């Protein structure tokens, strides 16, 4: 689950293009640093997962370590991060398929019209039960990893554009210095969003105190190193100068297949689309879980709690999530470029992906600080595991957020940190009000915002 929601193929095929305008040919180095940073960030999460195997995950960790109001804010930020993933993938699927159809067949089908297909499939799979949609996502995950690894090996085996070089794994390859690396890091971090997803299954698996931490660490390490190798192969394959000129609308992996293994062209295209769809399905399942449970507890309209009598799934919550995802993708697309231009679809992914990354980074900070505070109060304190590593992870995330606000100079990206700050202010205000007016609802509301009620939906699935 953790690895699949990270979306190895979609993250390899598309996320680097949003980093390369800043970090250029040094983007493989950025991803290598990101692996190390995410391992540090995961340290506090792993320690709290061992301590509290709970479906509440981050909400539970922060509530226990810092307090229920901080936990509520954590849930609010998690809600934004996961809610923006499906519409972001709609924009990306639509734009990618539109560009591919233009290049291969001379057809120009608007990206938003193409996006209707995956949304409909997502809703149909979820309608039949979460087990069906997760099984489909797992099959797609296995296929996509195979395709990207095979093509990367072929590119490296043929020597790339100008021979094998480790220069892209050096910060010296960045055309914009440290500032470019810092900004590119935010888009690299987007590729790792979801590594923590296994933490939400703490009440549904055997030996969660051992299995969940192992799943989190192995997901970061295995998928992260896959990113580094494949993006390094990409830079070698197209050349460093071409890598410096990539934009969010570029399709370098299509070009690599055409140049190094023509027979891989359509497998690459199919793997890219299937990876985006798998991310949509996994993230949508989480949001449906939240909205259904909140409807049941009257924190959202009651109709969202209704269950289909045949499939025993929260059908209206599923449809509502599909409509929300499609509607947001269309609105953002209208605001970001000509509606028929695939660039608008790519912008939907870039804008929403940037926003959700800025929302999830503070969650990692809060969880690591909660780990320090919890184990200090408990008395079973390890200087390395409960202080040095989690504080290092938290400080790196804070530095990343600060660096992004400082270095980012291009609108609308300059606005997005303020959007997240505004949302955080709203959630903090709500936490204060609920804590005073309805203290008994604070814990329940925060947990629902975090991951929903897994046991209830598991029975319905």
| Tally of helical runs | 20
**Count of β-strands:** 0
Report the helical percentage: over 70%
- Unreliable runs, pLDDT <50, ≥5 residues? 453-461
- Tell me the β content: under 5%
Label the CATH architecture: Up-down Bundle
In CATH, the topology is named Amino acid/polyamine transporter I
Indicate the overall shape: globular
> What's the end-to-end separation, in Å?
17 Å
How much is the average pLDDT? 83
Structural domain tally: 1
Could you provide a short overview of the structure?
It is found in: Membrane. It contains 20 helices and no strands.
Draw up the topology in text.
Elements: H1 2-6, H2 8-13, H3 15-23, H4 27-51, H5 58-65, H6 68-83, H7 85-105, H8 111-128, H9 130-157, H10 177-190, H11 208-238, H12 240-244, H13 252-260, H14 265-296, H15 315-336, H16 342-378, H17 383-407, H18 416-437, H19 439-450, H20 454-460
Please give a structural write-up.
Helix 14 (265-296) crosses helix 15. This protein starts with a helix and ends with a helix. It has helices at 2-6, 8-13, 15-23, 27-51, 58-65, 68-83, 85-105, 111-128, 130-157, 177-190, 208-238, 240-244, 252-260, 265-296, 315-336, 342-378, 383-407, 416-437, 439-450, 454-460. Mean pLDDT is 83; it is low at 453-461. The radius of gyration is 21 Å and the shape is globular. The longest helix has 37 residues, at 342-378. The protein is mainly alpha-helical and 461 residues long. It has a single domain, classed as Up-down Bundle (Amino acid/polyamine transporter I), CATH 1.20.1740.10.
């Amino acid at each position: 689950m953790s690895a699949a929601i990270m979306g190895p193929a979609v993250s390899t095929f598309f996320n680097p293009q949003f980093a390369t305008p800043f970090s250029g040919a040094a983007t493989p180095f950025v991803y290598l640093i990101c692996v190390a940073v995410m391992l540090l960030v995961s340290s506090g999460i792993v320690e709290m997962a061992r301590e509290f195997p709970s479906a509440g995950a981050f909400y539970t960790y922060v509530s226990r370590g810092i307090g229920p109001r901080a936990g509520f804010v954590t849930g609010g930020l998690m809600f934004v991060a996961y809610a923006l993933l499906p519409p972001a993938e709609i924009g990306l699927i639509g734009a990618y398929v539109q560009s591919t159809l233009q290049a291969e067949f001379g057809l120009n089908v608007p990206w938003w019209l193409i996006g209707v297909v995956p949304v409909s499939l997502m809703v149909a799979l979820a309608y039949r039960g979460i087990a069906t949609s997760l099984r489909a996502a797992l099959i797609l995950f296995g296929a996509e990893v195979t395709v990207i690894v095979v093509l990367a090996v072929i590119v490296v085996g043929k020597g790339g554009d100008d021979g094998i070089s480790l220069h892209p794994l050096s910060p010296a390859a960045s055309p914009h210095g440290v500032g470019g690396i810092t900004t590119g890091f935010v888009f690299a971090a987007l590729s790792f969003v979801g590594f923590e997803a296994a933490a939400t299954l703490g009440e549904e698996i055997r030996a969660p105190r051992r299995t969940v931490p192992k799943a989190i660490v192995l997901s970061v390490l295995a998928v992260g190193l896959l990113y580094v190798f494949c993006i390094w192969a990409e830079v070698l394959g197209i050349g460093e100068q071409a890598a410096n000129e990539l934009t969010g609308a570029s399709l370098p992996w299509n070009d690599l297949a055409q140049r190094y293994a023509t027979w891989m062209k359509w497998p690459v295209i199919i793997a890219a689309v299937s990876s985006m769809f798998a991310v949509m399905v996994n993230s949508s399942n989480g949001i449906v879980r939240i909205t259904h449970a909140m409807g049941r507890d009257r924190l959202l309209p009651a109709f969202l709690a209704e269950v289909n009598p045949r499939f025993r799934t929260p059908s209206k919550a599923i449809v509502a999530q599909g409509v929300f995802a499609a509607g947001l993708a269309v609105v953002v697309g209208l605001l970001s470029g000509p509606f028929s231009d695939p660039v608008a679809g790519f912008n939907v992914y870039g804008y929403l992906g940037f926003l959700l990354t800025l929302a999830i980074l503070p969650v990692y900070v809060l969880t690591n600080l909660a780990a320090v505070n919890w184990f200090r109060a408990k008395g079973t304190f390890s200087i390395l595991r409960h202080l040095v590593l989690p504080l290092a992870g938290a400080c790196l995330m804070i530095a990343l957020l600060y660096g992004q606000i400082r270095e980012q100079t291009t609108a609308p990206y300059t606005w997005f940190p303020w959007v997240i700050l505004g949302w955080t202010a709203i959630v903090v205000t709500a936490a204060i009000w609920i804590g005073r007016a309805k203290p008994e609802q604070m814990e329940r509301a925060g947990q629902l915002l975090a991951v929903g009620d897994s046991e209830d939906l598991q029975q319905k699935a």
